[in-house]
Amino acid sequence: MTSSETHGIDDSVLAELTRLRESIDNIDAAVVHMLAERFKCTQQVGRLKAVHKLPPADLDREARQITRLRGLAESAKLDPAFAEKLLNFIIAEVIRHHETIAGSNGSNGSNGSNGSNGSNA
Predict the structure, then answer these.
(1) Is the dihedral of CA 6, 8, 11, 17 positive or negative?
(2) Mean pLDDT by 10-residue block, N- to C-terminus, for the chain (121 residues)?
(3) How far apart are CA 47 and CA 67, in angstroms?
């Protein structure tokens, strides 16, 4: 925070705000690393699908994953609609990557640095 944002705020409030923001930063880092690991797995799925001429999307699996994720969100007190939107965004990215891999005949795919993570895994 800038000095103008902290002017007049009690030191204990600032300390608590800093502690909470540091926790948020740690969680954000963990989310990024988890997504990277998930993308690595879905890249492998994409290559496997390409080699065996399977379609990039698996609508039945996507539906099962959305149902599963909504249930997890509810039990975690997270808005299930938000969780579904997030998963749909991830699924779209996965399918895009799987299509790219299929276009290259699954020979090398992408390196996983921005890989896919959707329910097609």
Answers:
(1) negative
(2) 74 96 98 96 95 94 96 98 96 94 68 42 48
(3) 26
DSSP label at residue 108:
S
* Distance from C-alpha of 85 to C-alpha of 118, rounded to nearest angstrom: 12
**Inter-residue contact 98 to 45 (CB < 8 Å):** yes
CB-based burial of residue 4 (10 Å sphere; 0-12 exposed, 13-18 middle, 19+ buried)? exposed
CA dihedral 37, 43, 44, 45 (to 10 degrees): 110
In this prediction the pTM is 0.72
Determine the pLDDT at residue 118: 41
d(CA 22, CA 83): 24
Tokens of 43: 């890249």
Q: How many residues does the chain have?
A: 121
CA distance 107 to 97: 13
Cα distance between residue 91 and residue 119, in whole Å:
6
| First-to-final CA distance of the chain | 41
